[in-house]
Amino acid sequence: MQKRSFLEKETPRLGPLDFALRRAAGLWSVATRRTRQAGLRQILRHVNRAEGAWGALDQKSDAELHQIAADLRARLARLDRPTKETAGQAFALIREVSARVLGMRPYDVQLLGGYALLQGRLAEMNTGEGKTLTATLPAITAALGGWPVHVISVNDYLVQRDARIMGPLFDWFGLSVGCVISGMEPEDRQAAYACDVTYCTNTEVAFDHLKDRLKRVNLGRGLGRKLQQARTATVQDRPLMPGLCFAIIDEADSILIDEARTPLILSQETDSAVEAEIFSTALDLARGLRDGRDYRIDGASGPVRLTPEGQRRLRAAADRLGGAWRHDEQREDVAARALTALHVMRRGDQYVIRDDKIVIVDESTGRVMPDRFWSDGLHQLVELKEGVDLSPRKDTLAQMSYQRLFRRYLWLSGMTGTAREVAAEIHEVYGLRDVRIPPRRRKRLRHGRARLLPDQARKWQAVAAQVADCTEKGAPVLVGTRSVADSERLSAVLHGGGIAHEVINALDETRESEIVAKAGQRGAATIATNMAGRGTDIALGQGVANLGGLHVIMTERHASGRIDRQLAGRAARQGDPGAFNMVLCLDDVILQDAAMPMLRSIARLALGAGLERAALAMIALAQKTVEARHAAGRRRLFRSEGRQQDQLAFTGESE
Amino acid sequence: MAFFSKSWYRVAPLRPRLHAHVRTYRHVYRGDEWYMVRDNQSGRFHRLSARTHAVLALMDGRRTVEEIWKLCADRMGDAQPSQDDLIGLMGALHNGDLLRAGGLPDFEELDHRARRQSRQELLGKVRNPLALRLPIWDPEPFLRRTYPFVGWLFGPLGALLWLMIVALGAGTALLHLPELRAAASTDLLSRGNLLLMALTYPVIKTLHELGHAYATKRWGGEVHEIGLMFLVFMPVPYVDASAAMAFPSKHRRAIVAAAGILIEVALASLAVLVWSAAAPGLLRDVALNMAVVGGVSTVLFNGNPLLRFDGYHVLSDLAEIPQLGARSNKYLVFLLKRHLCRIPDLESPVTAKGEARWFLIYGLAALVYRLLILWVICFFLIGNFLIFGVLAAVYSAATALVVPAGKALRFALFDAALIGRRLRTFVRIGALGTLAAWLLFFVPVPNASIATGLIWAERQDFGVRSATAGQITDFPYTGPVEVRAGQVLAQLDNPDLKATQILTKAQLAEAQARFDALPQDRRAERSIVQSQIDAGMERLASIDQQLSQLTIRAVRDGLWIPISGDDRVYRLLSRGDILGYLMQPEDLFVISIVPQTQVDRIVRDTQAIELRMPGTGALIPARMTRALPSAVAELPHPAFASVNGGRVLIDPTVSDALVPLQSQFAIELLPDAPLDQVFLGQRVDVKFRHSPQPLAVTLWTKTRQVFLRDLNL
């Protein structure tokens, strides 16, 4: 059976009826999720049956186990996808080997999770239930059957960590493990993707796929492509990866939902001498415009709109400048972008400056994205604004979205701790049905009272007081901030109060693992952006559990409740105790982002009247509004793709 | 629409070229140049602005799109199309098989496109089953062969002939209007005529369509499709004359669109001529049918620009506003979005001066008309075919009202354009809605019921007649006046009577003399003469009485209403002729007949009653004196019946009495002011003014009345 050619799923073009049906199917899938959990339990029976057939595995020698593994591999290779029986056998074997090699014996709930992944489901597991180990079960099973497996995580740190920790287990089975992180050379990537199991980030796999697609599209279709390939097959032209076969996505909601709207643009550099002048003029012009009179910004990050007065002023300026400035639409377009660079883009929020370069900070993961650039000149405008060297202009070569990428996988599965709100959408777009994996142990997370303060300064004071309170008792504290700038502000306040603490943010990633390792120690205080969200496992120090475990303080509601819950999920892991509470204020970005000034006024009035709960409800409502808006934006993107493809049909096959 | 497109990278390196077979036609609309390009896939035309056309001209297969775009920037300056515009244009041209983007065509894409096309056609049929199109025949060879015989009709000679026929026909129709109307209202609706109608209708419509086809041929267009269209299940022939869209002259386009109507009007005129000349019989009936179908249907349907038939296309061509209807609707939506939702940077569908006004007026008029027609059709359907009618009515109401309303709701709730202004939009809609609801539900509006009344009197003897023949010598009052008993109303003179009096007096004197001369003993003779004297005395007394009757006096107090006419004085009257009416106000009343659906309201809530006098139109207040509690079994007067010009339908199954079809109630009214110049039995309009009530209540009552009356629910 030939599974290793260039493989991916043909994604059909969808019409309006398809969208409606898919939407209904998504809602149906959420409504019927309970039925799937029952089906999952069969795997436990099959695992036990396999153990029964082989006899107690823990009594067998390594050689005997290797022999069993070889038989199993032969059996799996004959199957397209593993059956229940073979999956049960594989899981039983992996459980035993894992216990021997790693010292970790997967629990029943991990077997359930692993089987859900094998079925191509979205497994919803509580934070801190050991998803890394869970992923190895289907990864090894599929890889033994000859499927190239991609285990996809959100960042390089997790990729390397998981590949390192799980490596011995794969080794035992004779499976090669590759690892793709940013900055690797094409040859290394080819080698990594050629492994049986490849750990990689979503960004890397997306761009590598895009590069492969581009090569193929450039070659043309059908016979023409084959002829071309035969003639000019060089290393450079060889695809980086064999195809999109089986993917296990860790933190699936982050990748499939939060990242869905990020366009993946493959670009090449061109010179930008002409543009530099235009951009700096645009910035000068934009600095002369006044908020409210000449332009308006919808929400904190919303689009910038010129008012008629602003348009008039620009026109007057353009008469002086001449040239390209005479064109109304072009001028206003550039001016609006310059205004965005000036007023919407904030240092320490959307970007940081590192080595005299603008580096984008991903909003949901809090990590820097050194290879990412804003398009349409925005990047250059921000560079000019900050006075750093201008990067060359990028010309788009190819573009795609995660929505398109992951729909191309022949076999897709995902796991996350927070899928509830987006399960219907994930099924609608990616066809993944979610299934809830029951927790092994009850969460021992105490939710503290949420607090709301009138402004930022008082919020940081309140947070500092709470941190001091906790550290005095000896309990470790993790404070989550929304942006890099906020983390530094809080750090300054803590310094002022003489409270020892560490900071994890995009400015310095090198000490991340070191700080994380210490964050659970007695009396530790750690400030972190979303970087310390997903996947970060903070182990508790000696005796800390008796003090109530890790205390997580959230200082701002994020763009979605899922990110909040991920942060809360850092506490009370693997059955440990933990606490979580929110300290918010009326200056929080979420209130501006909702673009509903009335919400903020109501919250302010309520807080003034002593109705703290009502005011907090307004902030929760603002978050819901933003969530709904983003969901609508993703749905629009999903639906517009087919339309756009039709419109661009004349340009040939899309990437 | 962004000026820079995110997809530009895919387009920029292409070297597009129009296919060799593509032809463009230059049109002028409202002073602006436009170019029409026919879409080979759908047969529709793309209308390209002069700018866009200039861009198209640059696509020669050698330049890349990037180069073309930069050339545009140099040449057009501010008029340079945006990248999205350009991509949209190329996409549309490609889908219409007009453009090659360079390189090999993508066969998979071609296949996909063809499938989608056919699926859309099918979907279109399913979605609109009330307007199915069934192509039947390619008439091009037939037209080409026969055109030489009829071509002259589409020239000056034909125009002259048409004018003559129509002038003659219209003149004849005007002369015979009452007859024509009577014939149309009686003969046409007879059952036997339906067959005749069914036979003449297709003939007329076929000639109509041939008119379009030949007119298209006249200026070089080709016609490749004739078929049947089912408008509300009624088969109507249609012809695909879209080739005429390419004609650069708006007059020629208008004539092609109008050709059908012109032919029908000419046919109707001819038919009127035949009808007026022919003897009663089949020919005359056929002519009548043709006249009505050709005349009425043309004016009401085909010629009506508010419906999307020929008249609409003529108007659209002459006003130089292509797609007037669709763009009017877009404009209305645009206005709503701009003013109600305050969405900035919207692109207006207005592309030329003066279009905005057209869009607004036409859009609103067509909307109101459509709703009106929908209303009428629904009632007709429900009233005539109950179950099926309700289904059809629900379907048409759904497509006309619910679907747009749903779209609007979805837009208001979910559309991205409203982000950040949804709340304000809802506040504005809410405010407007509240205002409308307040006006509709709370502001009282005067309203009234209208009924027919008849002037009537309890006593019938109020006519003042001459007791003696004579000539009027004095007639002191010319108009109604209050008089007292004994007052002189008129003075007559009768010279004959006076002469007879003198003669009789003389005869009497002679007889007296004779009597006196006779001796006492001639008893027999004396008694004869005595009897003569007695007779003479009697005669004289009678003459005296008659003479005294020449002075006509009021016998009682009352209102004196003299007869009208300029010759009242010196008029000669016979005995018993009417001089006028003397009556007490309470003698005269109005009896009115109101249907059951209205009687309750009239009795319960009438604030004022007005009588509108025919002729003068004077309004006379009145009050209700009596409302009979039960429905009338028979009409109190034939003048109420519809056959006699009244409003009440008569049960046709009862032949010897005027029994109303639906229950009617009689209400008696007393005028508050003297009625001027009235005749007994005269019809008047009676307006029962009710207390003002909100419009919604009135509408609801009216609707209920319609349902009660027409649907017998």
From TrEMBL, chain A:
Residues 25-615 form the SecA family profile domain. It catalyses: ATP + H2O + cellular proteinSide 1 = ADP + phosphate + cellular proteinSide 2. It comes from the Bacteria. Keywords: ATP-binding, Cell inner membrane, Cell membrane, Cytoplasm, Membrane, Nucleotide-binding, Protein transport, Translocase, Translocation, Transport. It is found in: Cell membrane; Cytoplasm. One of its GO terms (cellular component) is cell envelope Sec protein transport complex. Its EC number is 7.4.2.8. This is Protein translocase subunit SecA. The lineage of its organism: Bacteria, Pseudomonadati, Pseudomonadota, Alphaproteobacteria, Rhodobacterales. The gene is secA_2.
TrEMBL record, chain B:
InterPro entries: MBTPS2, PqqD_sf. One of its GO terms (molecular function) is metalloendopeptidase activity. The chain crosses the membrane at residues 149-170, 226-247, 254-275, 287-307, 359-382, 388-413. The keyword Nucleus does not apply. Keywords: Hydrolase, Membrane, Metalloprotease, Protease, Transmembrane, Transmembrane helix. GO terms for biological process: membrane protein intracellular domain proteolysis. The keyword Nucleotidyltransferase does not apply. It comes from the Bacteria. One of its GO terms (cellular component) is cytoplasm. PANTHER family: MEMBRANE-BOUND TRANSCRIPTION FACTOR SITE-2 PROTEASE (PTHR13325:SF3), PROTEASE M50 MEMBRANE-BOUND TRANSCRIPTION FACTOR SITE 2 PROTEASE (PTHR13325). This is Peptide zinc metalloprotease protein YydH. It comes from Pseudoprimorskyibacter insulae. The gene is yydH.
